[in-house]
Design brief:
alpha/beta, Oxidized Rhodanese, domain 1, five-stranded parallel sheet, 16 helices, 10 strands
Length: about 375
């Protein structure tokens, strides 16, 4: 009898292993190439963002050798409205195309920026997985200038995208485990596998950024079957302060660990969120490249609640935000330093000075007679 029980237990164990590929076999193939690159990046990165103040100081410290390469990933027509001086433009959805990657240096830091920090974080994450040294400008151009014509988008504030939706402090544990998604890029070599997966996701994924309003409506439409899996990627202590009802907690730096990925269903919508939208976007981008249907909640907890204690981080405020120079059509006109360009204002100014000098000479000549 005892032998039969042992045999039965062994058979059940083998069956469980067979139907649980997340644990029966470790991640492999293209999935593992992307996952390993993501985990390497997350375990070495100090911060995925840089503040406008820090960037401005770098660009104006009198040492050009430490200047980063500035990359705007906004739409070309919005880049033309005004951009950080010296910035080049590649739209974020085109960042993983070979001809665009060839324009970027691998021997210096790249500072990426967008509108409010979200699509810039997508591009930044992809570049780091591809081996570039990239960092995202916190709050994007919104954090650089107060010029709304340059931003060309709603600016975050209490009257725009700040809500005060309910929170909970109950700890929600993810108890089920799932198989990993299958990722087949058809590419060869780690770099090309990651690049292809990124390009595919950028141009085919469901909206990578969702609003707090849309999430609240989804959770309260009376149909639990369409609820997404919500993942707070904040620290455990800040998750405990308050989180979106039903959210589980996986710190963003741990999102690519196999045991954490096994907690996420490959056949359901997964929405991440953080503090202000940035590290949530890092996590959502990695999940998207790994084959999950992932999106990030815009502005994170900053957009969900008005409670600063729960946010646990400085809230964006246009009153205290910097207002640094931009160049482009919305920026003040500047006279050329050299004669390489033709500028009507310069021509008129030179002509006026010449006329003044000529008049002075004639007057002096007359008075000496």
């Amino acid at each position: 009898m005892r032998n039969k029980v042992v045999s039965l237990l062994l058979a059940v164990t083998l069956l469980l292993i067979a139907v649980s590929p997340a644990f029966a076999e470790g991640p492999s193939g293209d999935f593992e190439v992307i996952r390993a690159a993501a985990e390497k990046y997350l375990t070495t990165v100090k911060s995925p963002v840089i503040t406008a103040d820090a960037l401005y100081t770098l660009l104006n410290d009198g040492d050009a050798s430490n200047d980063p390469f500035i990359l705007s990933v906004r739409k070309p027509e919005d880049y033309a409205l005004g951009h950080i001086p010296g910035a080049v433009n590649i739209f974020y959805k085109n960042i993983a195309k070979p001809e665009n990657l060839a324009k970027l240096p691998k021997d210096k830091q790249i500072v990426v920026y967008c509108y409010t920090g979200h699509t810039g974080q997508i591009a930044t994450t992809i570049l780091n997985l591809l081996g570039y040294n990239a960092v995202n400008l916190k709050f994007g151009i919104m954090g650089w200038t107060k010029n709304d014509a340059v931003l060309n988008q709603k600016r975050f504030g209490p009257d725009t995208e700040q809500r005060d939706y309910p929170l909970e402090t109950t700890v929600n544990e993810a108890t089920a485990t799932y198989p990993y998604p299958t990722v087949s890029t058809g590419a060869t070599g780690d770099f090309e596998i990651i690049r292809t997966a990124a390009d595919n996701w950028l141009n085919s994924a469901k909206a990578p950024i969702v609003t707090a309003d849309s999430v609240f409506e989804n959770l309260n439409d009376g149909d639990a079957s369409n609820n997404p899996v919500i993942v707070s990627v904040r620290t455990a202590e800040h998750y405990a302060l308050g989180h979106i009802p039903g959210a589980i907690n996986i710190f963003y730096k741990d999102i690519a660990k196999p045991e954490n990925l096994a907690k996420l269903p490959p056949d359901k919508r997964i929405l991440t969120y953080c503090y202000t939208g940035h590290t949530g976007m890092v996590a959502a981008t990695i999940l998207g490249l790994l084959g999950y249907d992932a999106g990030n909640i815009k502005y994170g907890m900053m957009g969900w609640t008005k409670d600063d204690k729960v946010l646990a981080q400085a809230r964006y405020d246009v009153k205290t935000a910097p207002d640094y120079p931009v160049e482009g059509t919305a920026a003040p006109a500047k006279l050329p330093v050299t004669g390489a360009e033709t500028n009507l204002t310069w021509v008129v100014l030179v002509a006026g000075i010449a006329a003044l000098l000529t008049g002075s000479a004639l007057y002096a000549k007359r008075t000496t007679r």
